[in-house]
Design goal:
Its cofactor is Zn(2+). The chain contains 12 helices and 12 strands. It is an alpha/beta fold and about 375 residues long.
């Protein structure tokens, strides 16, 4: 991702810094997204130099990102950025939350406990997602055949609201807009009712919503209205999560999850009858297609042998003795959970990079740059 690193990847020069920093440190193949920010959105030559340097696409925020050198974009920035992206046929990933023009009756009123998850939920209602998608109406229309940015592709990251926001996106798809949607395992595994007060490991944006919303997300995923899954993994340091203070209003948002996404999806999806083919589509095939990777995402002749070996029936408890390979093991909301589906080994382009709890001794991953 272009942010959560300094400097953010918003120019050809900052992309080179990140690619150079990654050299000889990658254990898997890694591609790079660029950032769409006001500084480059209205400057096609700047955007083109970033795209020519090899980013797989761009990402923008319609609300403050929390990172000083990655300011938010409005719909005008997005519409102009899509015109440039259309020439390259690469996607724009959008964090689709926008502060509503009119406050909702649900929003904060008076003194509320910042340790209460309900307080945070009221501060970031579904109206934020709905407002952003309504503001994208013209941008989505522009991606249709004959539109101003035909060939461009809008991708909505980490959808949480399964009601009005999802309906608006389904309507845009039905009208011919080039739009895809993802959601995340934490929206499918957790519901607001079970988030303990003060446990800021569960804070993310958009928020984890109620149990009915979770059921609707599963239905939309199974029906194909949501195209794929992503981790939205947060690399937050423990101090930013304010775990001792437990203040949901000040803690950094994001779920630490990358290691667990396969067993989490499988464990919670079994009651809906999900299949291994669906898992492969949501986690491999569709994301590879989004990122323009024609030799990844499927087990086919000529494709990279990126393969996971696992025991779907094996159960395990994420207790204090379980190996966690995230940099900061104690910030994951999944700790303490029972899961099914144990990963035994992992291959990257045919190279064994993980087996029996041990990682490869040498970094054999490659940088992925668009051409």
């Amino acid at each position: 991702m272009p942010l959560n690193s300094f400097p953010s990847t918003v120019s050809e020069e900052t992309l080179k810094l990140k690619v150079d920093a990654a050299r000889d440190k990658l254990y898997v193949d890694v591609g790079f997204w660029g950032g769409l920010v006001p500084e480059n959105a209205l400057n096609p030559s700047k955007l083109e130099s970033l795209l020519n340097a090899g980013v797989l696409g761009l990402k923008s925020f319609m609300c403050p990102s929390g990172i000083n050198d990655f300011p938010m974009t409005n719909s005008s920035h997005i519409e102009e950025g899509l015109v440039t992206l259309a020439k390259y046929k690469r996607p724009l990933l959008i964090h689709a939350e926008r502060i509503p023009d009119v406050s909702s009756d649900e929003e904060l009123d008076g003194e509320l406990d910042p340790r209460s998850y309900a307080t945070y939920l009221k501060s970031r209602t579904p109206a934020w997602e709905e407002s952003a998608v309504r503001d994208l109406k013209r941008a989505m229309k522009d991606t249709e055949v004959g539109g101003r940015s035909e060939g461009a592709h809008l991708h909505i990251v980490h959808l949480s609201d399964s009601k009005t926001t999802l309906d608006l996106l389904k309507d845009a798809k039905h009208s011919g807009a080039k739009v895809t949607i993802e959601t995340c395992p934490h929206y499918l595994a957790f519901s607001a009712e079970e988030v303990p007060d003060g446990d800021t490991r569960f804070k993310c944006s958009p928020p984890i919503r109620d149990a009915a919303n979770k059921e609707n997300l599963w239905e939309a995923l199974l029906d194909g209205h949501i195209d794929m899954l992503s981790s939205d993994h947060s690399p937050s340091t423990p101090d930013l999560k304010l775990m001792e203070e437990g203040n949901f209003m000040k803690a950094w948002g994001g779920i630490s999850s990358l290691q667990f996404v396969l067993p989490v999806t499988w464990s919670h999806g079994k009651k809906y009858g999900i299949t291994l083919n669906q898992l492969a589509s949501w986690w491999s095939e569709k994301p590879a297609e989004l990122a323009g990777q024609k030799n990844k995402g499927s087990i086919l002749p000529g494709y990279h042998a990126d393969i996971v070996v696992w025991k779907p029936e094996a159960q395990f408890h994420l207790d204090d003795t379980h190996a966690v390979y995230h940099k900061h093991r104690n910030i994951s909301a999944y700790l303490g959970k029972e899961l099914s589906g144990k990963v035994l080994s992992t291959f990257v382009r045919g190279n064994l990079v993980f087996a029996e709890g041990r990682h490869a001794g040498a970094a054999c991953g490659a940088t992925i740059l668009a051409k």
